[in-house]
Amino acid sequence: MTTTSATPRTKESQRPRELRDFYENPDVPVASGDARSLRQARMLAAALGPATSGQGVVLDIGCGDGSAARVAAPLLAGHRVIGVDWSQDALRRASGHLPHVVRGELTDGGLPFADGSADAVLFSEVIEHLVDPDSALDELRRVLRPGGHLMLSTPNLAAWYNRGLLLAGVQPVFSEVSLRGIHGRPGREVVGHLRLYTARALREFVAASGFDVVRLAGAPFHGVPRPLRALDRLACAVPGAASILLLHARRA
After folding, report:
1. Is residue 177 part of a domain?
2. How many helices (H) and strands (E) does the chain have?
3. Can you provide one Gene Ontology molecular function annotated for this UniProt record (predicted)?
4. pTM of the model
5. Exposure check for the chain: N or C terminus, fewer CB within 10 A?
6. Contact criterion met (CB below 8 Å) for 154 and 129
């Protein structure tokens, strides 16, 4: 019988490497719809006010390819927007839309910014991809100044069509059981969603993380089939049933 001093890697130790490989894959979608980006940018612009009263520092955390910042740029003129991502491929693409991009992570002080140095954080459809969202919100709170704005968006587990799908025994849209393929739900793209929130759960989670929730709104989803898009826009009037949740909170 032979022995070895090597220690087998556990599934837990393999997971971060596998997730990193997944998100570094240039075929994985990193952009979301312009309708969501525009609604979120309007909320942020209203909260920050015009740059004539002082330039604000806005961190677009998980900026992806920079398309959300491109949509928001006309509304945030005069403010300094910095794109942050840990995917080198995403940063390369984002540099075409943003004058400033930096690499950073959301755990263990991995964002390369001083405490309280940001006036606002855009956190657009990132939280659903995270293994440890608690530590991520701790890090966002660290870099925000007291009273600084958090603009968070994420898919809604309780979207109007997901309620019907669950009643029919179908896996909800946005939820995924594998990084390798679609199983049991509508859609064609695997995007790596690990967590999903209802409006109530999102409010409670953000509040428990040291933020004061200011407003919760809804936004449409660009992937809804064309015949249903008018209905999807109407559902935004009831955020709890909308496709996308838009949450504005301030650091307590």
Report:
1. no
2. 8, 7
3. methyltransferase activity
4. 0.87
5. N
6. no
